[in-house]
């Protein structure tokens, strides 16, 4: 593959995903900013609830990732019937997995919020917010699965269209319901949650209606019945369970970092809440690149084009982190202006946020390297068990213990506690780079009798 063709395909896949991810991150930032005038307690409540919901979002993303991997390989192999069956399988599994979590949030949100804060105002506001968010789990899972499938067949523009309209609707509803007007009282944090519920329902309904009009991902009764006579559900579960375990344990560990900040006080928790959407926006630009990496490599693995898959992997491994470092330096230069736009509750919160941004901008290129290596390369070839083990060692044996020691044993300033999180990323980067060089991820996951005849590959 020549560089011109490489960049043409990267941009067609990465740009819509990056724009959509940036819009989603902007929505998270809008939720925090729109309640920031209500005080630290409101910011902390929304941020903590969003972090708890993030754990479940990552469980959903694990199922979406499994769907994306198999759809990309089946699409590359030319098996459109298997593409639709994979989508159906992912939707069914996602519904079953989200059922207990939905019941949990609807009945026991309060104890979850109390894990991260002892402030009664934060607990009260966060409980209401998180309970309402529980109503969105089924629709959010469906959205994530459909978006994964659409991107893997090369239609990254479709999810962007749906998300852009839904996000604009969400922000408009946020403004109305948080502040009141047109006959409704100001609902504050509760209004932000209601806006999210309504926007997600609209987005999922639109996706279902429109995709049933198109042949690529139209699900008929025969699609569901065909699952009973194929090995696809078993293969899908075998591929997905390490992803679900990985994403669940990783998100629980990520929540652990947030809980440590919460136990340090309301100001550190507010700082983490303010930084979370900025970090999300920062990585949104590279999530599109990582998605393009996974789709392009997955389609070639499905065609047994292993040399070209390796060529692509090497190119993405230096492009993504280098771009991330450059963006981090630009973001750091613009941080005084960015923080000036935020309605900081007090001077201490503003100062701590500025210090933490220095760490984020200078160190998060390592995170982008790991995103590319794990999500874009290793998982494309089904190397999910290694990713599970690497994540668990780096987070639960290195990152979390060191962060806890920094916070409560060494009693370091908050900026050093925040910086300690990056210890996990450094260890992980060393492990995944070694694994990529070993080449275990160069694997075709389509069923053997359905594989296409390999075609000639260009020289790497």
TrEMBL record:
It holds the Pfam family MatE. It is found in: Cell inner membrane. GO terms for cellular component: plasma membrane. It is a multi-pass membrane protein. It comes from the Bacteria. The chain crosses the membrane at residues 54-75, 87-107, 127-146, 158-178, 184-209, 236-260, 280-297, 317-342, 354-374, 386-409, 415-434. The keyword Transmembrane applies. GO terms for molecular function: antiporter activity; xenobiotic transmembrane transporter activity. Keywords: Cell membrane, Membrane, Transmembrane, Transmembrane helix, Transport. InterPro entries: MATE_fam, MdtK-like, YsiQ. Its main location: membrane. This is MATE family efflux transporter. It comes from Zobellella denitrificans.
